[in-house]
What does this fold into?
Amino acid sequence: MGKVIMVIDDSPTIRVSVEIALKSTGVEVKQAENGQDALDKIKEITDAGGEIALCISDINMPVMNGIDFIKEFRKVDKFTPVVVLTTEAEKETIQKGKEAGASGWIIKPFQAEDLVNVVKRFVK
Ligand SMILES: [Mg+2]
It folds into this structure.
């Protein structure tokens, strides 16, 4: 297993649209439905020798939200970029995300091009 982009959102529609948008990058995409699911899957991937290249995370999710996910993820990984998917209405959550260790954000509704540009910027 090589580099993996982890897409974390409780909306299956969003997860699938992000995955489709990222097809052209050629980087493998894995989906998680909340922060805890993402932490579990990231551990499985890294235990198997894979590398998380980027996390793209929603904020509002059941079980574990995006802010708590970033805080927990940063305890085990200081450097892998985490880009937050957010809506205009969540401007203050962008600030909370930054404080938790987010690397950038994408405003919903996003274009495929926005996601591809984020991958080009953060995945080396
Ligand atoms: Mg959500």
About this structure: The mean pLDDT is 94.
